[in-house]
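A protein record pairs a chain with a discrete description of its three-dimensional fold. The following entry can be read in just this way:
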Amino acid sequence: MKRRLLIKKIAMAICIVLAFSIVIAVFTIAFPKKYVPVFIGAACVAGVAVIGLCVCLFFYLRPDNSKKKLQERYSALPPEKITDFKAELDEVRKNYAADSDPNKNKIEEAFISDVDYTRFFRHTVLKTGNIYYGCLVEANKSLFKKNAAGLGVFPAMIVYSTDEYYEQNPYELKKIADYLYENRNDNVLGNERDYISNMRIKDPVTDGHEVYLTTVFVYSPHLPFGYITGSLFPVIAHPSTSTSVFIVDCKYWTDDIVANFMYRDLSRPDGEPFNELPEDGYED
């Protein structure tokens, strides 16, 4: 994350230099005899700037070596059903708390026209929030593609709960997610341009438990292989004080949670496989 932000800042500075040199070059064309040396200098600077942008693009798109090593380890994980979901979640909380990096789990902001997107990128919740299980309802189709890894931040709709009941029974959230998606034409999911933040879901689907529906922006490098293969994952949230929810970086997940996500929800009590969303689901 820090590497990508630094590259973006360098690229922006290069763009300013490039624009300035182009303006000077265009201006000197009007006086070719008088300003030939200036034109040549500006053209050289512009050329160097273009090369600099190409270098920035190369390093921006290059996979993170640390993530590469993690993925190699993930590939060797055996399928393992989770028997104690709460213990796994507590381990994720410990892993996250043990990291003193002030920039941990931060993601790049995504721009969305006609939407107050900043409310989904308030990183203070990464320090004040707690970690819970979240379950996918629907997502931008790019998040299901292997070749999308590392190329951006995409929206998804999830349900999660702060209720301890779901710490041991997270797949009860899957039932709620399925119900909402199956009835999307009759609920808030019907409008794909409606980016929801921490909306409390009411009965009959929650049995009185505290469950929220919210938009999250998924930073693909925070997923084990950069794209969605399962529906259950840890999220960090604090619905009473923050409008933002983030998926916890997979480097803090336990091996069993990673394996469960990789092998398409093998721990589901009903034994049913993970259902991928249709290609036209949640385009924006």
Observations:
- The chain has two domains: 2-61, 65-262.
- The beta strands are 130-139, 153-161, 199-201, 211-219, 232-237, 246-247.
- The two ends are 23 Å apart (CA to CA).
